[in-house]
Amino acid sequence: MEDEEHEVYGQEIPVDGEDVDMGAGGDDAAKLHELDEMKRRLKEMEEEAAALREMQAKVAKEMQGGDPNATTSEAKEEMDSRSVFVGNVSFHSVVV
Which uninterrupted H or E stretch holds 80? Predict the structure, then answer.
């Protein structure tokens, strides 16, 4: 991987597992622990976002009607098999 410089970080982007220089002073162990905790939370958020995208896609398919795994012709046939046509009905004689 080619070395890249991050515009905000101002240094080379660290590769997972590399030591990170968090600046002078302070407790390095605490900073590394905080960094690891941030990475863990970011991973959790990414996993949750992926699960939400998957659920959203599933709901979108269900909202379109029919079996989300069915092809277009299969879905149409299924819908037609549950449909009833009623013709020659006079709506003037219908009592509401």
Answer: helix 72-81
* 35 and 20 Cβ atoms separated by less than 8 Å: yes
Helix or strand holding residue 29 (H, E): helix 28-63
Degrees, nearest 5: CA angle 76-79-83: 130
Distances (CA, A) of 69 to 50, 61, 65, 80: 20, 9, 11, 17
Q: In this model, does residue 93 exceed pLDDT 80? A: no
Q: What is the C-alpha separation between 70 and 35, in angstroms, rounded? A: 46
Residue recorded with tokens 């009592």: 95
Convert the pLDDT of each residue in 3-38 to its tens digit: 555 566 556 666 666 665 555 556 788 899 999 999
Output DSSP code: residue 15.
Answer: P
Instruction: Tokens for 4, please give them.
Output: 């890249």
